[in-house]
Amino acid sequence: MSTDCPSCCPDCLITKPTSCCSDSPFALPKLLRAGTVTLKVSADIRQGICNHNHAEDDWHHFDAFAIVSRLTDPQCAIFCRELDFLVKQSFISVTHRYSDDSQIILRIYLIPYDLPNVQGKLRVRKSSVLNPAKRYMRTLLSRIIQNHDGWLGLQPARDSKELIPERIV
């Protein structure tokens, strides 16, 4: 789909990893595109976060474990662990790509509560799971930026806007 992926390792740049396609109800084209979140990472992350395959959007699947150790801000590490929780509990799906300015861009996809073909299994959770999820979603929604350039993996333009203004969350 794309040219060279800035997050791929040298081996993958040669062999060109394929994007997976899925009939799963959780396939990215079936989810809601919320926007992007950008995190500052150490310069040594370049090609160090490759998982040797691409998601349907031609970016890499989010792997909190691989990213956390390379973040420059401890608060971002906490944020990534919260994202990991939301992914594992089927609230969101996240893909990422390295940016040339020592940042990682996260694409955030929201998984609708009434997603077809999941037989009502979403959000049938114990309240102990919903309590942190609600808090984590609030944090996430306040950080999401809607911008076409950011979605394409480019430096977000000045006309970027928050998905939900911080004062509302």
Supply the key terms.
single chain; about 170 residues; two-stranded antiparallel sheet; 4-stranded antiparallel sheet; 5 helices
Short account of what is shown:
The chain is built from five helices and six strands. With 169 residues, the chain is of the alpha+beta class.
Verbal overview:
With about 170 residues, the protein is of the alpha+beta class. The protein has helices at about 10-15, 65-70, 75-90, 125-145, 150; strands spanning about 30-40, 60, 90-100, 105-110, 145, 160. A four-stranded antiparallel sheet has the order 1-4-3-2, covered by helices on one side. It is globular.
Please report the distance between the alpha carbons of the first and last residues. Answer: 36 Å
Give a quick account of the main beta sheet: strands, pairing sense, barrel closure: 4 strands, antiparallel
Order the strands across the largest sheet as they lie in space.
1-4-3-2
How much beta, percentage-wise?
Answer: 15-25%
Along the chain, the helix and strand elements come as: HEEHHEEHEHE
Number of E strands: 6
Point out poorly predicted stretches.
none
Radius of gyration: 16 Å
**Discrete helix count:** 5
How many domains comprise the coordinates? 1
Task: Classify the secondary structure makeup into a structural class.
Answer: alpha+beta
Helix content: 25-40%
Query: Shape, please?
Result: globular
The averaged pLDDT comes out at: 76
